[in-house]
């Protein structure tokens, strides 16, 4: 029997995805844009809408990074608003475990799960840079080797808060017309190296019990964290074989945590460009990538690796012959601008070799090395290729990242989705009432008997 494909939508805002110059590109902060994308995703029977969030605007060369969205509304506020205009779509928010506290985050997600009827999801992320930490009252930051340790304890603590309500503590008193509460309801006490809290959690158990947990780390520690605690993991692998290798690796880790293969889904982020012919689609895709990576943007990306001002370089010229500046990154500030390469000098060498082999300019090289996984072609060929990835265990579904906001999913919803449905690999109706149901995840274990709740 064929595997069923899962689909999700990403509303960009902290990357170079959106083509700002396209006249169809509308507001990135008005609620109408979020609503349009969410309604399209629900019309196409997507599992969830995913919002990314940064805790501080990035800076480069002392100026606000030109690809950040200034004025982006708070994630919980947007998701709560979307809960009122959708019925089935899951609502996933990126919330940081480094600069927040378990009680407030658990309370916000439990409330969202109640308001949405069981559709909340939490993408657990970390930060370690002091620049972001300056925004918070205690400042500071965590060394990189401690960020997943805190994230794991943060998540386990939040689970204790969610599970402090069993679900049967509130009963109606028919004589008085009031509700009676078991005095033990919401009681918690948690103490470890990161948290020392005790009291009562004041939000009763929500429809899902806990939000669906997402994780987006690709490091070994990130994969292990996902295998131990997440319901789904996001990845950026761009080829079939790389996806299959990643899929096999995270799935093999699950038994070590007492979990089965069906308890963790794998979602790569992907873009889709459609055309009446494959040739037309590839022409459109090349045009979109050049719109996404202007000459100025290409230089900004290059500066992040070289760690120095390169504004005097011609983006249509060759890469610099000198090496990156070693040590702490001082040209780029902010969580999403920290160095993604552990050995910048080695990466620069690889980029030079690639540029020489393909005769690429700086801009052309950046277009190539920053591209995400893409499906390019006719609706029929895209549907076939997406299905191939899922059936060959390169993933369980996809998070679609449109290059236009808010109408970037409309064409996919109208052309590709019906073809997947015809193949019998994609739903025609939502099967359940909660996000966990629609993702096909196993029911949560009883919090009173689950070893996964142990502190």
Automatic annotation (TrEMBL):
<keyword id="KW-0560">Oxidoreductase</keyword>
<dbReference type="Pfam" id="PF00296">
    <property type="entry name" value="Bac_luciferase"/>
</dbReference>
<protein>
    <submittedName>
        <fullName>NtaA/DmoA family FMN-dependent monooxygenase</fullName>
        <ecNumber>1.14.-.-</ecNumber>
    </submittedName>
</protein>
<feature type="binding site">
    <location>
        <position position="148"/>
    </location>
    <ligand>
        <name>FMN</name>
    </ligand>
</feature>
<feature type="region of interest" description="Disordered">
    <location>
        <begin position="431"/>
        <end position="455"/>
    </location>
</feature>
<keyword id="KW-0285">Flavoprotein</keyword>
<dbReference type="InterPro" id="IPR016215">
    <property type="entry name" value="NTA_MOA"/>
</dbReference>
<dbReference type="InterPro" id="IPR011251">
    <property type="entry name" value="Luciferase-like_dom"/>
</dbReference>
<dbReference type="InterPro" id="IPR051260">
    <property type="entry name" value="Diverse_substr_monoxygenases"/>
</dbReference>
<comment type="similarity">
    <text>Belongs to the NtaA/SnaA/DszA monooxygenase family.</text>
</comment>
<dbReference type="GO" id="GO:0004497">
    <property type="term" value="F:monooxygenase activity"/>
</dbReference>
<feature type="domain" description="Luciferase-like">
    <location>
        <begin position="28"/>
        <end position="390"/>
    </location>
</feature>
<keyword id="KW-0288">FMN</keyword>
<dbReference type="InterPro" id="IPR036661">
    <property type="entry name" value="Luciferase-like_sf"/>
</dbReference>
<feature type="binding site">
    <location>
        <position position="219"/>
    </location>
    <ligand>
        <name>FMN</name>
    </ligand>
</feature>
<dbReference type="GO" id="GO:0016705">
    <property type="term" value="F:oxidoreductase activity, acting on paired donors, with incorporation or reduction of molecular oxygen"/>
</dbReference>
<feature type="binding site">
    <location>
        <position position="94"/>
    </location>
    <ligand>
        <name>FMN</name>
    </ligand>
</feature>
<keyword id="KW-0503">Monooxygenase</keyword>
């Amino acid at each position: 029997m064929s595997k069923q494909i899962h689909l999700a939508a990403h509303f960009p805002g902290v990357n170079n995805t959106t083509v700002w110059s396209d006249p169809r590109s509308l507001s990135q902060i008005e609620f109408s844009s979020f609503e349009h994308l969410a309604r399209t995703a629900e019309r196409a029977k997507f599992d969830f809408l995913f919002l990314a969030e940064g805790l501080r605007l990035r800076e480069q060369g002392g100026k606000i990074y030109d690809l950040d969205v200034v004025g982006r509304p708070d994630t919980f506020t947007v998701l709560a608003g979307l809960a009122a205009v959708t019925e089935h779509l899951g609502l996933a928010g990126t919330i940081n475990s480094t600069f927040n506290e378990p009680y407030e985050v658990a309370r916000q997600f439990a409330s969202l799960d109640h308001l949405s009827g069981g559709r909340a999801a939490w993408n657990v992320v970390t930060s370690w840079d002091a620049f972001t930490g300056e925004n918070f009252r205690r400042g500071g930051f965590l060394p990189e080797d401690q960020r997943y340790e805190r994230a794991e304890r943060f998540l386990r603590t939040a689970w204790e808060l969610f599970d402090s309500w069993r679900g049967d503590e509130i009963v109606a008193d028919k004589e008085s017309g009031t509700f009676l509460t078991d005095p033990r309801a919401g009681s918690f006490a948690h103490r470890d190296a990161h948290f020392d809290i005790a009291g009562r959690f004041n939000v009763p158990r929500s429809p899902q019990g806990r939000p669906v947990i997402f994780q987006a780390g690709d490091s070994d520690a990130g994969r292990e964290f996902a295998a131990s605690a997440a319901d789904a993991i996001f990845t950026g692998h761009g080829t079939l074989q790389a996806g299959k290798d990643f899929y096999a690796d995270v799935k093999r880790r699950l038994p070590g945590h007492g979990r089965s293969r069906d308890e963790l889904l794998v979602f790569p982020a992907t873009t889709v460009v459609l055309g009446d012919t494959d040739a037309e689609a590839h022409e459109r895709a090349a045009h979109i990538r050049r719109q996404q990576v202007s000459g100025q943007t290409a230089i900004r990306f290059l500066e992040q690796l070289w760690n120095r001002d390169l504004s005097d370089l011609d983006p249509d010229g060759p890469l610099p012959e000198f090496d990156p500046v070693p040590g702490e990154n001082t040209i780029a500030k902010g969580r999403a601008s920290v160095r993604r390469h552990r050995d910048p000098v080695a990466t620069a060498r690889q980029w030079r070799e690639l540029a020489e082999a393909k005769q690429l300019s700086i801009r052309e090289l950046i277009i190539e090395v920053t591209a995400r996984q893409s499906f390019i072609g006719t609706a029929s060929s895209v549907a076939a290729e997406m299905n191939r990835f899922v059936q060959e265990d390169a993933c369980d579904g996809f998070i679609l990242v449109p290059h236009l906001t808010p109408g970037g999913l409309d064409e996919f919803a109208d052309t590709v989705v019906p073809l997947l449905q015809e193949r019998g690999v994609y739903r025609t109706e939502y099967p359940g009432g909660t996000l966990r149901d629609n993702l096909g995840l196993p029911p949560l274990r009883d919090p009173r008997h689950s070893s996964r709740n142990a502190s």
